[in-house]
Specification:
Blueprint (H helix, E strand, L loop, with lengths): L2 H4 L13 E6 L3 H4 L9 H16 L7 E6 L39 E6 L10 H7 L4 E7 L1 H14 L3 E10 L3 H14 L2 E3 L1 H10 L4
Parallel strand pairs: 1-2, 1-4, 2-3, 4-5, 5-6
Length: 208
């Protein structure tokens, strides 16, 4: 038993509530298209493929799905990011790389919106949208695990949502960063599970 476990971290499972939603964080071409400076991660690419499979397999559950993408009008709108490639123009309004990855994009069924900060919740309409749908549980998918996924999961926890992180539907530039952040979030804020377990939990909630 490690020191965290001995101190009680991760000892309680959260579980899902009565109404779930799916949150897709930053699965946009800027992170998934290898032509983009930030889009060359095979780990992120694998997460997109698994997420597309996950969404197909839970389609009959008809859960609400929200997809965000990060985009700014210009550098003047941006916070003091330390990631130089964000200033190249690839994340400015109108650029192809601000578009959602076509493997998961579904404008007819998904609620899509733009964010300007790491968290999917920060100064976006998401909280109102979730509240109107009586959502108490969110399944978080997206990239990057150590960045915007982590920020979104912590805000979800802080706002009182039951937070599920679908680990193989999240990706990062580096596998170590992915794993260490999942481990840390799983100790404190969220249940971390793979897509097969998430599907099982969702389908079990369907009326028989």
């Amino acid at each position: 038993m490690d020191k965290f476990s001995a101190a009680g971290y991760g000892a309680q499972n959260i579980g899902i509530g009565n109404c779930s939603a799916i949150l897709l964080v930053d699965f946009q071409k800027g992170f998934t298209d290898p032509r983009s400076t930030l889009g060359k991660s095979q780990h992120v690419d694998s997460a997109v493929e698994t997420s597309a499979k996950f969404l197909r397999m839970i389609k009959d559950a008809e859960l609400p799905v929200a997809s965000c993408r990060t985009s700014w009008a210009s550098a003047d709108e941006m916070a003091y990011w330390k990631v130089s490639s964000l200033y190249s123009g690839e994340f400015f309004h109108g650029h192809e790389f601000t578009e959602l990855d076509p493997r998961i994009a579904n404008s007819r069924q998904h609620y899509e919106f733009v964010k300007t900060a790491p968290s999917i919740f920060f100064k976006t309409p998401l909280i109102t949208w979730l509240t109107k749908k009586n959502v108490d549980t969110v399944f978080v998918l997206g990239c990057t695990t150590s960045g915007c996924v982590r920020a979104s999961a912590i805000d979800s926890f802080s706002l009182g949502f039951r937070t599920m992180i679908v680990e193989d539907c999240c990706g990062d530039q580096d596998l170590d960063a992915h794993e260490s952040n999942l481990r840390d979030m799983g100790r404190r804020y969220a249940d971390v599970l793979n897509h097969s377990k998430a599907i099982e939990m969702i389908l079990q909630k369907l009326p028989s």
